[in-house]
Amino acid sequence: MKGNCVVAQSGGPTAVINASACGVIQEAMRHPEIDGVYAAYNGILGVMNEQMFDLRKEDPSTIEGLRTTPASALGSCRYKVKTDEDYAKILDVFRRYNIRYFFYIGGNDSMDTADKVNKLAAREGYEFRAMGVPKTIDNDLAFTDHCPGYGSVVKYLATMVMEAGRDTEALYTTDTVNVIEAMGRNAGWIAAGTALAKRSEEDAPHIVLLPEAPFDAEKFKARVDHFLTTIERCVIVVSEGTKNPDGTYIAEQKGEFAKDAFGHTQLGGAGFFIKNLVESEVKVKTRFAIPSTIQRSGAHFASLTDSEEAYTTGVAAVRHAVSGESGKMVTLKRVSDDPYRCETGLASLSDVANGEKLFPTEWIGPDGFSVTDEFVRYARPLIMGEVKPIIDGGLPSFMRFKKNFVRP
Amino acid sequence: MKGNCVVAQSGGPTAVINASACGVIQEAMRHPEIDGVYAAYNGILGVMNEQMFDLRKEDPSTIEGLRTTPASALGSCRYKVKTDEDYAKILDVFRRYNIRYFFYIGGNDSMDTADKVNKLAAREGYEFRAMGVPKTIDNDLAFTDHCPGYGSVVKYLATMVMEAGRDTEALYTTDTVNVIEAMGRNAGWIAAGTALAKRSEEDAPHIVLLPEAPFDAEKFKARVDHFLTTIERCVIVVSEGTKNPDGTYIAEQKGEFAKDAFGHTQLGGAGFFIKNLVESEVKVKTRFAIPSTIQRSGAHFASLTDSEEAYTTGVAAVRHAVSGESGKMVTLKRVSDDPYRCETGLASLSDVANGEKLFPTEWIGPDGFSVTDEFVRYARPLIMGEVKPIIDGGLPSFMRFKKNFVRP
Questions:
Q1: Are A380 and B400 in contact (CB < 8 Å)?
Q2: Strands (E), B162-279
Q3: What is the average per-residue pLDDT within A45-56?
């Protein structure tokens, strides 16, 4: 089927979502079936607003530069496509621009959008192929062994925890406890991944708090005390999604620890909550760090394995689409752990859209504040190797598109 | 003069303070005048508590590993030596352990301590040499062109700002403003350094808030509005020491924006204050990041120039001490900018102890929210080159001493 293609990125960026875009773009340009290779500017919004730019007018070195540039170079959005009008508008734009291939790089919501556009096109008899490319630092997509983006956030955040852990070790006589807040609203995959930093009892992180392990304040304080007694310090990684036994977020809980200066319940407040709890109840000076979006943008120390897999899923999406698949997301299937080997597979967009993969409770350590060796065996291969950024003037150099917008 | 030497680290760690220790230790071991090479565990506290360990009993590869290990591997402290009893105790320990050489790696307070011990020893007729090795991410020591530790914190934090800046650029339709809090209580050197990330108008940081530029809320809001109008986003770096025109810290100011949940004035609250100000007055969604100690521990992306200079200052301290100097701190003297070349020099400990080098106001840009090209020419050479960490299992590998404590 001949026609144009559009690639779009959606949701929270990662260190390697651009590598997936690079895979899609470079592969699309190799297929004579695909004429125009367009990027939707800011995800599905770029389709709805007819803001699509021509990737064939970009320098090939700019496109190659996607492999070492963090965040979403095509632009992203958090727009949730909901109404029939939205979907009709999207399909109308696809028709008018003769877009026959749609590659959507994102998480659950994006897969849902791609699925619904695909079904609408089928109902309306518009020949069209929609493929999903998985992306999320949260690693919570079902039907795939892991998600591109996860290995890099873990590699970088675990490194931060190691390094800040050495800082706490050096200054434990004054700055005794350090709390680092990890992203991950519903699933503890990211916080859990920082446990890879631990090679001995001495090493940070000493306590990991996960959404999947209900927060027990008394057990937690006892665990902090244990480390203050044995190694005189404690580095705590807390997932922003850590929950109380009643299912509410710890950062949302009533009381004096969790409100911002407006009295609003605060997002991203889990680290602050734990810092206040330790200072007021364990009575030791506590620092806290909130790496926030920095953790998911660490292109300068991204996982090479992750980056290559991200690229490969992008390539696979195009190949499958050209060979006739539609309504599928490319998955990663682990063939072996040691040596680590992964292949791509396919899952239906609607299955992925409705699934969510939490951190398995059997991978939580017996103390409730650590992870098992089985998790480490799962996660270690995903952080191997380093992407080498281009350095100019002592700092990484990232690409940016010229963005020549197309007209129908 | 024959005898033992002790090396100590003090204050907040850096990514390269261990490189300075490595320089001291490796050079001390080359001089027959120096018999025992000891480390004081946790700075001057290790002397006062007679907790000193024998560096000749450590593996040479462990000592070499100091070059790629962040924070203070000898242990650090924030103990302020004040009383005559403290100083008498220190000198007594030095006598009993036959310590004739004291190398103190730290900032102003450490130089003051070394100076006073040196003077006391002279008054009491104890043959002794005390040398200071400069260390501070704050870059606020006088009599030296710059301080080891500064180049690395700038390189790493500027990289964080670049990467998080790309995240904001990708998701500006929802997360429009991002505030990143930089360390630096009194001097804006670190926040200013993030401006090195800027290669074009598009690039972060768009606004830099420095302690040396009194905070004008109206001008600031107008500047944020400017960027929202022109590029639809704004990345702000705020020094934790940013002050109001009356000299109080912005994070300390009265009102609803600056208190923690206890109602205490909060340290490290400048980022939170600016986030709240932008959200409530400019009415756009604002994220904030507090890299905290992570920024000063970034061994995995430390500046090679900084690391080598840190090492060199350690070596120079030993050479000068052996050749008869005492009561001095090693300085860095810039010989030329391009090609960049620095030599070591000496300054008196008491001069350094009483000096403080703020960010020059003539290096603040005309808008009050940026820096001049002259500053960039000063700072750029300091971030050149990358320290290559040892990687094991996808993560950096750091050394740790066995610590065989010595007896008199």
A1: no
A2: 177-182, 207-209, 234-239
A3: 98
CA gap B165, B294 in Å, rounded: 18
pLDDT score at A260 = 44
Distance between CA atoms of residues B258 and A280, nearest Å: 19
| Tens-digit pLDDT profile for residues B236-256 | 999 999 999 999 999 875 554
CA distance B147 to B352: 12
Please choose, from the candidates A276, A390, A321, the residue with its C-alpha nearest in 3D space to the C-alpha of residue B259. Answer: A276
CATH number of A3-136+301-354+388-396: 3.40.50.450
The count of residues in chain B is 408
What is the location of CATH 3.40.50.460 in chain B? Answer: 153-297
- How confident is the model at residue B269, as a pLDDT? 85
Contact B382, A184 (CB under 8 A): no
Sign of CA dihedral A361, A366, A367, A369: negative
Per-residue pLDDT at B267: 44
Lowest-confidence region among A274-283, B248-257, B270-279, B293-302 = B248-257
- Give per-residue pLDDT as tens, A266-324: 444 899 899 989 999 999 999 999 999 999 999 999 999 999 999 999 999 999 999 99
Would you say the pTM of this structure is higher than 0.95? yes
The b/e string for A89-128 (b: 16+ C-beta within 10 A; e otherwise) is bbbebbeebebbbbbbbbbbbbbbbbbbbbbbbeeeeeeb
A292 and B163 within 8 Å at the Cβ level: the answer is no
Contact A25, A8 (CB under 8 A): no
Residue B253: the pLDDT is 55
A69 and chain B in contact, CB less than 8 A? yes
Give the pLDDT band of residue A255 (cuts 50, 70, 90). Answer: low
Task: Report whether A72 contacts A17 (CB < 8 A).
Answer: yes
The answer to whether B13 faces chain A, any CB pair under 8 Å, is: yes
* Closest residue by Cα to residue A403 from A3, A15, A69, A75: A75
- What are A333-384's pLDDT values in tens digits? 999 988 999 999 999 999 999 899 999 999 999 999 999 999 999 999 999 9
ipTM higher than threshold 0.90: yes
Residues of chain B with CATH 3.40.50.450: 3-149+301-355+384-396
pLDDT > 90 fraction of chain B, expressed in percent and rounded:
92
A64 part of contact set with chain B, CB < 8 Å: no
Contacts for A387 with CB less than 8 Å, ≥ 6 apart: A15, A16, A67, A68, A152, A299, A301, A302, A303, A304, A307
Superfamily of domain A150-297: Phosphofructokinase domain (3.40.50.460)
Range(s) within chain A of domains with CATH label 3.40.50.450: 3-136+301-354+388-396
Q: Where in the sequence of chain A do the CATH 3.40.50.460 domains occur?
A: 150-297
Q: Which residue of A has its CA nearest to B266?
A: A261
Q: Which residue of A74, A161, A163, A285 is the best one to mutate when testing the B interface, meaning the one whose CB has the most B CBs within 10 A?
A: A163
Does residue A145 have an active-site annotation?
Answer: no
Opening angle at CA B342, ends B339 and B347, nearest 5: 155
Q: Is the Cα torsion angle B307, B309, B310, B311 positive or negative in sign? A: positive
DSSP tag of B303: B
CA distance A328 to A231: 51
Q: How far apart are CA A175 and CA B356, in angstroms?
A: 24
User: Does residue B258 carry a pLDDT above 60?
Assistant: no
Q: How many CB pairs under 8 A join A and B?
A: 204
pLDDT tens digits along A154-172: 999 999 999 999 999 999 9
- Nearest Cα of chain A lies from the Cα of B404 at a distance, in angstroms, of 17
Give me the CATH topology for the region B3-149+301-355+384-396.
Rossmann fold (3.40.50)
Q: What dotted CATH number matches B153-297?
A: 3.40.50.460
Q: Using a CB–CB cutoff of 8 Å, tell me whether B303 touches chain A.
A: yes
